[in-house]
Amino acid sequence: MTKMKIYPDSHVELSHFISNNYDNVMDITSLGFYGIFIKRVIADMNIQPDDAIMDLGCGTGRNAELIHRYLNKNGSITGLDISELMKSQFTRRFRNIRQVEFLQQRIDIPFELSRSFDKVFISFVIHGFPNEVRHVVIQNAYNHLKPGGSFFILDFSEFDINAIHWLHRLIFKTIECKYAFDFIRRDWKSLLSKHGFDDFVEHYYVMKYVRLLRALKKK
Ligand SMILES: C[S@@+](CC[C@H](N)C(=O)[O-])C[C@H]1O[C@@H](n2cnc3c(N)ncnc32)[C@H](O)[C@@H]1O
Fold this sequence. Notes:
Elements: H1 16-20, H2 22-29, H3 33-43, E1 52-56, H4 62-68, E2 76-81, H5 84-93, E3 100-104, E4 117-123, H6 131-144, E5 145-156, H7 166-175, H8 178-183, H9 188-194, E6 197-205, E7 210-217
Parallel strand pairs: 1-2, 1-4, 2-3, 4-5
Antiparallel strand pairs: 5-7, 6-7
S-adenosylmethionine binds next to helix 4.
């Protein structure tokens, strides 16, 4: 049975087929580039061995697996995702590893966990929500970070869709939902500042179409 989407126009609530084959889809559509790219991103996060890290919309746990390599036995990862299919892939991947947990949890509504984190990571999820919902996601990140903790958004950078190469525009228009078009137009640093973040650091990838934006929760 097909599940009703929360946001029918969004592309981050994935189909059954894509969810079940997500890692392969990423490898095939990127011609194998995705694995190299995401390793570089995780290396740029400056992960400390005993970090407690929350991954919002964690998917299959592929990113969490790379993050886990940087942790010692005191570090931990908490992955949150709405999807049953992602849950089964994530928990299979980490079945013998106690410091990595999965919570089946919507991230687009307020939630409360009893602990706080050194880092919160969100990778290719937030662009797929309506803008007012993104504020809830950012507030969830803020509320669960320790003072001085880092919020990492890996997603599209800010760019003018009409100013880019026609082929890139065609690809973006083919694969992305209407919320992504809104996402790339916004000034994310000033938006995050309004939530109490500052001290921004940016890393760019994929011809500058993708950005890892780090924002610190003020102490
Ligand atoms: C494009 S995938 C990205 C997965 C992962 N972050 C990555 O980079 O590989 C989007 C993920 O967001 C999850 N997702 C979508 N809407 C969500 C929501 N409201 N709450 C929690 N997770 C959600 C999906 O189930 C999917 O795993």
